[in-house]
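Re: weekly structure request thread

Next one in the queue (141 aa):
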Amino acid sequence: MLHNTCAVRYTVIVIFQVITLKQRLIHAQTQCAKIEEETLFEKLEDLNLAENLKESIRNCIRIAKASTANGIRYSQKWLFECILLKIKNTAAYMHIRKNNIMPLPDPSTIHRYLRKLKPSYGFQSGVFDVLKAKADTMNDM
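Done, posted below.
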């Protein structure tokens, strides 16, 4: 009888601990949900990371918060990087996308953007605008 009483006490203690941990988990989840996307991005800027890595993290956060896969909006920088990756190595692009290593757009999205490009000889009209924007973001030497 004494052995059975100890087992019951132990079971009650374990159940109490499980309930307490579940409550703590729910509290932590609600705290994480309250964090605004802008706050995360501000904290991200404080970190000493490469700009491309920061852009990857920003897109991961946006995709994690998206309710459906159809409503995802990628930044222009991220789309350009994805287009370059797809052009350089399609198999690597598909591997990264298939295994959810990084949030890459569907290949049809990439093809849609590539069809909008108008290849021609010489410089395209927007090349100088892009070069100026890039030069503005570079640090002064």
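The chain has seven helices and no strands. The CA atoms of residues 33 and 65 lie 9 Å apart.
Next request, please.
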